[in-house]
Amino acid sequence: MQYLESIVGPVHRQGNSGYDVLRRGYNLAIEHNPELIVEARSASDVVAAVRLAATHKRAIAVMNTGHGPSVPADDAVLLRMGALNGVRIDSARRTARIEGGTKWSTVINAAARYGLAPLNGSSPGVGAVGYTLGGGIGLLARRFGFAADHVRWCEIATADGRLRHVTPDSDLDLFWALRGAGANFGVVTAMEVDS
Ligand SMILES: Cc1cc2nc3c(=O)[nH]c(=O)nc-3n(C[C@H](O)[C@H](O)[C@H](O)COP(=O)(O)OP(=O)(O)OC[C@H]3O[C@@H](n4cnc5c(N)ncnc54)[C@H](O)[C@@H]3O)c2cc1C
């Protein structure tokens, strides 16, 4: 399959070890039967998986923790994001750069070392990026607003196989749409948020 050799992370098919574990997330209400499961290790893996899916006319699905409700990813390329879990705090700018598969618990712990706190929700096990792409109404929302109101930029692999750095200046419409309906517009490999 074209682009398969470009993927560094493990790729699983039905019958491979790992397939049955990785097609499940926290929410077991939906059963996913993807054709391939890609464990992304980098933004390049995400781009290669998107190109592979587009070239071979497969849908692409994204699962981090699997906390969100979803539709079955049958015959799709399912991207698992959990290995993209880096956080970098910039204490001077009071920001966090969060990779696409990072859980809130990781961000909270990293920020707390600097006396900072992100706008997380009620569960530390939820994905910070998936949460923020949906708006994100957390414990501090009455005072500070939605988590999505505090996004500075997103790095996203779009359906045309490009990795874009999206800011209000570079692409206002996409930046606007990502902050609330974000899961519809591509795979976010990283974002920077206020902390
Ligand atoms: C126990 C619990 C507590 C919660 N508390 C709150 C709360 O306090 N406030 C609140 O607003 N919400 C809350 N939620 C809802 C939660 O924010 C959403 O379900 C969120 O979408 C989960 O994101 P996830 O990445 O963990 O889950 P997933 O199921 O892995 O992903 C959810 C959606 O986001 C997409 N997605 C995930 N990562 C990416 C990415 N990197 N790029 C593109 N798309 C991506 C997925 O494709 C899917 O459509 C809670 C949910 C649970 C189960």
Write the layout of secondary structure elements.
Blueprint: E1 11-12, H1 19-22, E2 36-39, H2 43-55, E3 60-63, E4 77-80, E5 87-90, E6 95-99, H3 104-112, H4 128-133, H5 141-144, E7 151-157, E8 163-166, H6 172-181, E9 187-194
Parallel strand pairs: 2-4, 3-4
Antiparallel strand pairs: 1-2, 5-6, 6-9, 7-8, 7-9
The structure holds flavin-adenine dinucleotide.
Residues 25, 62-68, 70, 81, 100, 121-123, 126-127, 129-131, 133-134, 136-138, 183, 187-188 line the site of flavin-adenine dinucleotide.
What do these coordinates show?
This protein is an alpha+beta fold and 195 residues long. The protein has two domains: 4-80, Uridine Diphospho-n-acetylenolpyruvylglucosamine Reductase, domain 2 (2-Layer Sandwich), CATH 3.30.43; 87-194, Uridine Diphospho-n-acetylenolpyruvylglucosamine Reductase, domain 3 (2-Layer Sandwich). It is 24% helix and 22% strand. It contains six helices and nine strands, in the order βαβαββββαααββαβ. The protein has helices at 19-22, 43-55, 104-112, 128-133, 141-144, 172-181, and strands spanning 11-12, 36-39, 60-63, 77-80, 87-90, 95-99, 151-157, 163-166, 187-194. The protein has a five-stranded antiparallel beta sheet. It has a four-stranded mixed beta sheet with strand order 1-2-4-3, with helices on one face. The longest helix has 13 residues, at 43-55. The mean pLDDT is 96. The structure holds flavin-adenine dinucleotide. Flavin-adenine dinucleotide binds next to strand 3, helix 4 and strand 9.
